[in-house]
Amino acid sequence: MNSLKSRRFTLKALTAAVALTTLSAVPAFAADTIKVGILHSLSGTMAISETVLKDTVLMAIDEINAKGGVLGKKLEPVVVDPASNWPLFAEKTKQLLTQDKVSVIFGCWTSVSRKSALPVLEELNGLLFYPVQYEGEELSKNVFYTGAAPNQQAIPAVDYLMSKEGGGAKRWVLLGTDYVYPRTTNKILRAYLKSKGVKDTDIDEKYTPFGHSDYQTIVADIKKFSAGGKTAVVSTINGDSNVPFYKELGNAGLKAKDVPVVAFSVGEEELRGVDTKPLVGHLAAWNYFQSIKNPTNTEFIAKWSAYAKAKKLPGADKPLTNDPMEATYIGINMWKQAVEKAKSTDVDKVIAAMAGQTFKAPSGIVSKMDEKNHHLHKSVFIGEVKADGQFNVVWKTPGPVKAKPWSPYIEGNSVKPDEPVKK
Amino acid sequence: MLRRMILLLMYAMFFIATNAYSITAEEVKAIAIGDAEVRIAALNKAVVTADANTVYFLQALADDAVKFKGEQVFVVRDGKGFDPVSRAEFAVPADAEDVTNNNRLRGELDSALAALKLFSKDEKIRTAAIKQLQSDADESKLPLIEKAFAAEQNPQIKEQLGLVRAAALLNSTDKTKRLEAAKLLSTSTQANTKTVLLARLAQEPEPDVKSALQKSLREVEAALAWGDRLGAIFSGISLGSILLLVALGLAITYGLMGVINMAHGELMMIGAYATYVVQGLFQKYLPGAFDWYLLAALPVAFMASALMGAALERSVIRFLYGRPLETLLATWGISLMLMQGVRTLFGAQNVGVENPSWMSGGVQVLGNLSLPYNRLVIIGFAIFVLLSVGWLIGKTRLGLFVRGVTQNRAIASCMGVNTARIDTYAFALGSGIAGLAGCALSQVGNVGPDLGQGYIVDSFMVVVLGGVGQLAGTVYAALGLGILNKFLEGWVGAVLAKIAVLVFIIIFIQKRPQGIFAMKGRSAEA
């Protein structure tokens, strides 16, 4: 009796389970989708920068879907939160590739997070679009780098500061968060500065931990160092540490015309929480600024404002666009074009189709993916902070610059090929 | 704005009285439009023959209030356009472009304006102008400086102006002038004097001028070293005051009551978010009194955290007294819940808490030492909280009960003290102080859901190092750690300093587990 009852129960459960699976399978058949993974920190120290990138991908997906999707299929976003926790980036990448079976991933900000995800991507042959300026020294078949390499951001910025127009800096403080991007960038910059005749005693390299919030000593040191001659600060501070750093800078009365600070990771979004009046004149080097005037950018900003308002995103009352958002937007659109060219979402076919893709970028150029080296050709802009938190472009390159992921200022790089090495 | 207008009027009266020359449309155009190089040359030329209109126009340029269209230049004030020469009101075309100044131009503009302000009737303005010129006086301003120097009556200001004049004369082609300037500059206590001296030293051909320069440089450096030392001590005290604030609440909940409260950091975070909410309310309903929102935020932050603390104590912690491991785990769980709760309520991103305007900037103490107001306010606030807590625990009836209950619960109970209620009050007090700390932290750092995580280790470190159960120990430990940390940071950098401090504490606790101050007598064993 007892066993009969339990058997009947098993049977019932089985029928129910089968019914359920068929039910849930039905909508999946009706709307065959292409899954797109989004791997940006939505909490922790990097959330200040990365959250908007998630929203940018979602906006682009909405836009693409509204125009009929890709290859007749809608895109379906899969959002995960790696929480500014570097090992978690590898785990979440694995989850996206094996469980969710996404065709492509848009994500990462810090280089350490990219380095963490990279082995998984290469092992499982995934595809990552990385939208942030970085230190170079990497060229993976499975990654497209839509942010700047050092020669597309760091080196032009230093050149500008050395010029008469930029203040003719003679001494340099290289200040950064302690991880791979600032360390490598500063290594390249040190070699570059030395090649320009700057002595080691005129370069001061400083690092702080992630999430550092007390910049008194560092600002005092910069002040002291600057008494020895015209000084410029190159900041590779990442994440929310920038807010206390700039606050301290303002309070200590260190003016941009005396000691200009050029930042590589501070854009419109990072300055949102800061009183920018004491910071007027400090610089940032990027490949896009919201203040750039051209029809494509006006359209991009309008789209973003409308999206931010419709989705009631935080800060929608003052919608801001920035460089990594632009890079993300270019990335997803180029991926769409490549999928359409390859007529498949197969990773190898898409990679082949990506070479030489072009897209009209909000920065005002037609952005081109290099035929070989997986990096975009980009224009470089140097902007000064204005009182309203926007940037005033004071210098730009005459045209797009080809990326050199292997910086010639690091030894042994001259022999490395300018394309991913087949393994 | 009003002050600036009055100033402008004052210049206007002064210049109209003394100078018949007026800025021309050509000059305006040359200063506003074109290549930076040409604009600077035009600017420096115009300054020498400046009049009220020049000041008006340069001030507008420095305030980014100038637009142009084609060859036409406008000054835009409060939405209205003015012609810079005639000052007649003008309708500004909608497609007029902003005149943008880069750092170099802004520097030139500021020093030009400062040179003109040397003739102000107000001594404060003259002093400020001199301070400005100390860093960027060059020969183009020399005629103005000489004129002002000759006219100056106040001996103190004249002395300061003399230094500026010397800095400008340092690059003179006349050797005797250089020598005189080099000697005079030895009395300066400004950091930029060192810059000027070093720059000249690198290109000075005359040996006797060179030795004078070197001598002055040594004296200036000696004067500057004092500023550096005091600055390091100040930043140590400032960090110490922050550590003290974050640890004081814990000194009560952990030190006196013995509750290992891992959610202490989150109680601070609640205080910081309470500040954020009050700020938002002021922005919306009382924008006129925005500068004083912080005063209103203090009691709100205290109450928010105190109520949360009381709720925690009543609902969870009181069942776990005497079971440290369970308390640790339970409060840790609570901390995660609080963080997630705030994340759901306010979002995972940091929220912006603005400094009131009276907390921005700083006071110049020595030539190279300026103390930021927000740090000074926090030091004062930490002292205030410390004294209040000391008074509350040491002098009031509630404090007496708290001490009684923590020292001997059974006897206190026999004496008719409602020990359960005292526990709740004491825990709420400790939590409320954490809320105050959160309010203070919102002024120097970021406010986000994981704000507390960064401080929980620090606060336990301070309490344990100071000696559990001792308020005085907490004070010494906080200041000691603050100064040690800043001293190490200046020496080995921020990353290593953090590690070194932890290593120091581990060794210290090994050698002296009871902390700096040990409880003596019978209560020590309880």
Write the layout of secondary structure elements.
The complex is a heterodimer of chains A (423) and B (526).
Chain A: H1 2-30, E1 33-39, H2 47-66, E2 74-80, H3 86-99, E3 104-107, H4 111-124, E4 128-130, E5 143-145, H5 154-162, E6 171-177, H6 180-195, E7 203-208, H7 216-226, E8 231-236, H8 242-251, E9 261-263, E10 283-286, H9 295-310, H10 323-342, H11 347-354, E11 358-360, E12 366-369, E13 376-377, E14 381-385, E15 391-396
Parallel strand pairs in A: 1-2, 1-3, 3-4, 4-5, 6-7, 6-8, 8-9, 9-10
Antiparallel strand pairs in A: 10-14, 11-12, 12-13, 14-15
Helix pairs in contact in A: 2-10, 3-4, 10-11
Chain B: H1 2-18, H2 25-32, H3 36-48, H4 52-62, E1 66-69, E2 72-77, E3 80-82, E4 89-90, E5 97-98, H5 103-117, H6 123-136, H7 142-151, H8 155-169, H9 175-184, H10 191-203, H11 207-256, H12 264-285, H13 293-315, H14 324-346, E6 362-366, E7 369-372, H15 373-395, H16 397-407, H17 409-414, H18 419-441, H19 453-466, H20 471-492, H21 494-511
Antiparallel strand pairs in B: 1-2, 1-5, 2-3, 3-4, 6-7
